[in-house]
Amino acid sequence: QVQLVESGGGSVQAGGSLRLSCAASEYIYSIYNMAWFRQAPGKEREGVALINTVSRSTYYADSVKGRFTISHDNAKNTLYLQMNSLTPEDTAMYYCAAGGYGLVMSTYNYWGQGTQVTVSS
Description:
Layout: E1 4-7, E2 10-13, E3 18-24, E4 33-39, E5 46-52, E6 58-60, E7 68-73, E8 78-83, E9 92-98, E10 110-111, E11 115-120
Parallel strand pairs: 2-11
Antiparallel strand pairs: 1-3, 3-8, 4-5, 4-9, 5-6, 7-8, 9-10, 9-11
């Protein structure tokens, strides 16, 4: 059973940066898309960013475009999310996921446990 483990969350002031990591316990063959989702208190989980680990193409939600960068290191089996210019609206639990399509949550088979990001004003 493949496990995804996130790290890098924390508390930061508005305007600050954080880098999230998601380490996979093993290489996931035939899984091309990896993504970050987030869920704020009282809100539904939403897709943030997606990367195809083969083509390296990326996709971002409008709310984070230009501020967040998703990347993947094949050698380390690790997914990253660099988050800059953070705002309090970015406060949420962030989850990495693998094996789905687009940013459609229900299509993803593998999920991490989440890492909390808190942005204060």
